[in-house]
């Protein structure tokens, strides 16, 4: 049986040890010394190399801001001539072995290889997180996106959140994303200089909201759907129609007012010269009224067509539900399995 | 929603003033009577204006009006407004010939003054002698107008007045 002094010493040692532990409720799969990672330029199919590089940079930026990773070799300057003295296009590095070699040369813990393909308005984003030391894919994620290229940035961010589900920096993460029962949802935009001012809430019925916005103000649904340019143009067109309608209504109203006034004096008049003068003016005002009224009818009919076309376009560009197709060889979307799987991976390493 | 619903009724201004209706059917330049329908009783005195319609650059007018002497008695004549602002206006009439009334109106035209538009030449006063209905008409070709250069102005329409006596 141990002596009380021994027990007291052990308890004191335990207290000191406990006090020296980091006071954080978060559990990181990596140590807090910023694990390193590199992102190889995404392989592009159907989009320009410049657009592919921009999206890769976006991926790196989001990754560096919201995960504890230290993103190595980011930026165009750093990407050049890292491996070879001759310039090399890393977008051709799509295999695991190539990615592992790059990771070893860059001396990073993880490396990401990805692909962005486009077929008409349908984009597929996929990325693999590769462990350089284990030389295997830790997890893979892919997203489907239907729309224009200018709305794909949020999906790149979403791809980051999907791929680094467990590693996201909780503090920064909480400022941008909402943890929901369905997974992650964007809370607010983090790059106002890159995005429009309308947030994309992934949990809402985006199509319904976009349609509602567009029904109230044509073009608003497009802006809501991150189709800012076309949305503004549609709003501008609608405003132009409204201005034309208002102008013609003003012409009608003012002419009607003047014609009524003249006609009130025309009826009982007995002076031919006054009658002739009034008649000509009344006829001019009547022509103006009829012309303005005809224009209003044309604008009204065109507005209906414009509105219907706008609704159809909104339906086409409204963001659909994101389809996540996990194809990880180690992890699934089940958080419990994710955790176990990853722990096993680390243990094997 | 305003764009979907906004449109108004077409204009509806019937030009049905009873004085203006016959004027709309005339082709200018023309001469006419105002009013063109007169309802009087036997013994009543009435006035009728002798008008030119939309005449351009006129310097002299001669109107020859025929009336039913058995029914109407010519009383007097007053100058109208066509040359009222002109300089050295000449105005006189002649009713000596039975059933005819000649009206002459001129002004001394120069390069800067002219008379145009729809104006009265004269106002004639009559009295209804009995209950016979009659008409006032312009006789052609005696009724004519000229420009300051003494060029004839072609009168395209001639109006008439109907006098109904109760």
The domain tally of chain A reads 2
Number of domains of chain B: 1
Amino-to-carboxy terminus distance of chain B = 62 Å
Uncertain spans of chain B: none
CATH topology of chain B: Immunoglobulin-like
With helices defined by DSSP (H or I, 4 residues minimum), what is the helix count of chain A? 11
Quaternary state of the chains: heterodimer
- Categorize the overall geometry of chain B: flat
Provide the gyration radius of chain B in Å.
19 Å
Question: Into which percent range does the helicity of residues of chain B fall?
Answer: under 10%
What percent strand of chain B?
Answer: over 45%
Q: Helical segment tally of chain B? A: 2
Overall mean pLDDT of chain B: 88
Order of SSEs of chain A, N→C?
A: HEEHEHHEEEHHEEHHHHH
Quickly name the level 1 CATH class of the largest domain in chain A. Answer: Alpha Beta
Structural class determined from secondary elements of chain B: mainly beta
Largest sheet: number of strands, sense, barrel closure of chain A:
6 strands, mixed
Kindly state the mean pLDDT of chain A as a whole number? Answer: 73
Task: Name the shape of chain A in a single word.
Answer: rod-shaped
* Strand tally of chain A: 8
Provide keyphrases for this structure.
heterodimer; A: 349 residues; alpha/beta; Rossmann fold; 2 domains; 6-stranded mixed sheet; two-stranded antiparallel ribbon; 11 helices; 52% helix; disordered C terminus; B: 166 residues; mainly beta; Immunoglobulin-like; 8-stranded mixed sheet; 5-stranded mixed sheet; 13 strands; 5% helix
């Amino acid at each position: 049986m141990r002596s009380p002094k021994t027990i007291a010493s052990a308890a004191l040692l335990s207290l000191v040890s406990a006090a020296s532990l980091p006071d954080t409720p978060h559990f990181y799969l990596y140590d807090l010394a910023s694990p390193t990672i590199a992102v190889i330029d995404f392989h592009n199919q159907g989009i320009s190399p410049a657009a592919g590089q921009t999206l890769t940079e976006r991926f790196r930026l989001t990754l560096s801001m919201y995960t504890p990773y230290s993103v190595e070799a980011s930026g165009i300057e750093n990407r050049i001539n890292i491996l070879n003295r001759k310039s090399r296009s890393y977008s051709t590095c799509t295999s695991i072995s190539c990615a592992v070699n790059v990771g070893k040369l860059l001396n990073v813990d993880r490396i990401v290889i990805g692909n962005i393909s486009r077929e008409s308005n349908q984009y597929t984003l996929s990325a693999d997180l590769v462990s350089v030391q284990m030389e295997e894919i830790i997890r893979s994620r892919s997203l489907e996106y239907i729309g224009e290229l200018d709305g794909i940035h949020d999906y790149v961010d979403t791809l980051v959140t999907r791929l680094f589900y467990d590693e996201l920096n909780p503090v920064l993460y909480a400022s941008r994303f909402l943890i929901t029962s369905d997974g992650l949802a964007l809370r607010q935009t983090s790059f106002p200089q890159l995005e429009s001012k309308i947030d994309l809430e992934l949990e809402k019925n985006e199509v319904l909201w976009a349609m509602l916005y567009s029904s109230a103000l044509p073009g608003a649904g497009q802006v809501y759907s991150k189709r800012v340019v076309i949305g503004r143009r549609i709003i501008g067109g609608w405003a132009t129609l409204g201005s034309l309608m208002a102008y013609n209504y003003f012409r009608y109203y003012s002419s009607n007012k003047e014609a009524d006034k003249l006609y009130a004096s025309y009826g009982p008049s007995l002076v031919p010269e006054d009658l002739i003068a009034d008649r000509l003016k009344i006829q001019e005002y009547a022509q103006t009224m009829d012309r303005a009224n005809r224009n209003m009818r044309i604008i009204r009919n065109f507005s209906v067509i414009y509105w219907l076309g706008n609704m159809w376009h909104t339906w086409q560009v409204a963001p659909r539900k994101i389809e996540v197709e996990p194809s990880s060889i180690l992890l699934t979307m089940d958080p419990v399995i994710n955790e176990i799987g990853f722990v096993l991976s680390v243990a094997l390493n | 929603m305003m764009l979907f619903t906004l449109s108004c009724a077409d204009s509806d201004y019937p030009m049905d003033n009873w004085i203006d209706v016959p004027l709309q059917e005339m082709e200018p330049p023309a001469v006419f009577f105002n009013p063109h329908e007169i309802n009087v009783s036997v013994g009543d005195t009435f006035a009728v204006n002798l008008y030119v319609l939309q005449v351009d650059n006129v310097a002299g007018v001669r109107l020859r009006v025929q009336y039913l002497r058995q029914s109407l008695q010519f009383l007097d004549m007053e100058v109208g407004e066509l040359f009222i602002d002109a300089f050295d206006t000449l105005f006189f009439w002649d009713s000596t010939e039975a059933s005819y009334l000649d009206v002459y109106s001129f002004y001394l035209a120069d390069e800067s003054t002219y008379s145009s538009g729809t104006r009265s030449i004269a106002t004639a006063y009559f009295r209804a002698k009995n209950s016979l209905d009659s008409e006032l008409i312009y006789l052609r070709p005696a009724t004519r107008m000229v420009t300051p250069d003494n060029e004839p102005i072609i009168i395209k329409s001639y109006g008439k007045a109907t006098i109904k006596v109760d």
